[in-house]
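Example A, followed by Example B.
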Amino acid sequence: MANETHLDRTDFAILRLLTKDAWLSNKQIAAAVGLAPSSCHERIKSLRARGVLLGAHAEVNLEAIGLALEAVLFVQLGKLEAGAVDDFVKSTAAIPEVRSVFLVSGRSDLIVDVAVRDMQHLKEIISKHFNRHDVVLRVETSVVFDSRRQHSLP
């Protein structure tokens, strides 16, 4: 968020509604926050223009599309030069099976969430994109048995 971005209660109300259901119509949002639809539309345009509202995304049942296995990779890097780390994070985020990449402190340098078809697919992803990369020291993998995601604002 930009340093000069001022958000009022109405902006936060709009953001809360959209984080719960991005498919709400402008008319529904306007009614919920007590604005005219045209004013609400302008507010949403402004939130996008100021870089506060970055996008809207559909939540997909991964199993329904053949991605029955989710795993979290804990990646330890050997070379921590800024350029090498940035390049590796960027290339990791571009892998189609990667859902999230977090550059973190602690024992691991990256935490990577992946969705794959099965264990063989997971093995291929780790082998092709991580184990063969010269910046990677070690990859520890945890299979996700169940998860809950929260999309609302804190």
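Example B, a separate protein, is given below in the same form.
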Amino acid sequence: MHNDPELSGKYLGTISGDFIKVCDTLKEASYQIRKRGISEFPIFPICKADQPVGQLIIHKEQLDTDWNYFASFMDEFVQRGIIDPDKQADFKKTYKEADEYCCLFVIDQQFTNFVFIPYPED
């Protein structure tokens, strides 16, 4: 896996197209994760194949999307070594307002990174 901080047009197009279909579900999942006290830092891994991080909430065939969507949170990422325990404070500073932005963790062969995408305004 190559970790490139810039989101190429290839990814931006498919993620944006999918996001319109899944944003309401992800926003509700984010709210529930925070409301139930699970975490203040929900993360939604997305991948075109199965992967072990988080729990599958939307299979790509379910809504005809390019990506599978999983629900997770910062503590799982720390436990799995994706976020270094010493970097949690940095992650929290970088994390955007969960009611306004969705934290995606894009997993693909050429790109793996966190992406914050704004929820559409009502």
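On Example B: Residues 1-5 have pLDDT under 50 and may be disordered.
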